Amino acid sequence: MKKINFASDNYAGVHPTILQALNAANEGDCAAYGNDRWTLEAIEKFKEHFGSSSEVFFVSTGTAANVLGLSTYLSSYQAVIAAETSHISSDECGAFENYTGSKIIPVKTGTGKLTVDLIASCLTDKGNVHRVQPAVVSLSQPTELGTLYSLTELKEITAYAHQNGLSVHMDGARLCNAAAALNVSLGSVTRECGIDVLSFGGTKNGMLGGEAVVFFDTSRELPFNFIRKQGMQLSSKMRFVSAQFTALLSNDLWLKNALHANALAHLLKEQLEPVQEISLAYPTQTNALFARIDNEIVIKNLLDTYAFYIWDHDGMEVRWMTSFSTTHEQVLDFSQEIKKQIVLFNKSF
Length: 349
Ligand SMILES: Cc1ncc(COP(=O)(O)O)c(C=O)c1O
Hints:
By secondary structure, the chain is of the alpha/beta class. Helices cover 39% and strands 17% of the residues. The chain contains 13 helices and 13 strands.
């Protein structure tokens, strides 16, 4: 039986408007490697959202965006400060370390969010030749725990980082969900908060595939064209990535998709809040819920019909995630089923 997806927005299909854009771009032959009109158009769209001086490069995966974007800022003796739960630290199979030879300094946060104090605690060995030297702070917005930095928190962190000679990277694999939840523009939660380089996600918000590395810090020499090619991320048929981005960033599709995914996560939360057997591990701010059920039988039974991740090592915390294609009905059915399984379990004792 095909399971109903509450596992990830990566499980979702492709938004019909993106498919139409792909079809429209499938028009005869054109120059390869991004020297085509679709890529020029997509870069202009990014500039509309992120500011005209932004430099934009498309890549195929979020991991590539993170690793290649970060690599621009580092020598191998330098390091990135990131939350222990960040994707670069815990979910990219050491890609960053393997590719750059640099180290990630993982920081315990509790919420997925770095703070100025936590960053400061990583700087005590500055100048000590025996220690790696932090050069970049990497923030995920939203975090891998679905939590959000406010604009004030972002500005505090970037100001502190810049005062201390650090650049700031943002992993925005779900930046659209964050901007939608904060009710702000894409530019105001990135460039205007002092971010230097952004990994911008398209795949999780309705695209077939494609991510972007966006540099706001253009004061430096950025040979990213070469870094991307050497990093095996220069697609020859770039127009098909570009056409998707133009569609996503036009007519508020990015916002509509993200608002929908966020709203359905909130609906699930509202349905489950009264259930005393369930506690939410973190505030539900975007499109993910992290719930403790403390009942492995209920979790196992739910997994027969629904796909979702068991999140922690004791197996009692789960992640439920919604996407642009999750339906209202699926959320109501899922919450009914969760409640039913809890009642059945309680009756059996
Ligand atoms: C926060 C975050 N960053 C980066 C990535 C990496 O994306 P990809 O799987 O396309 O490499 C993911 C994927 O789930 C993610 O959740």
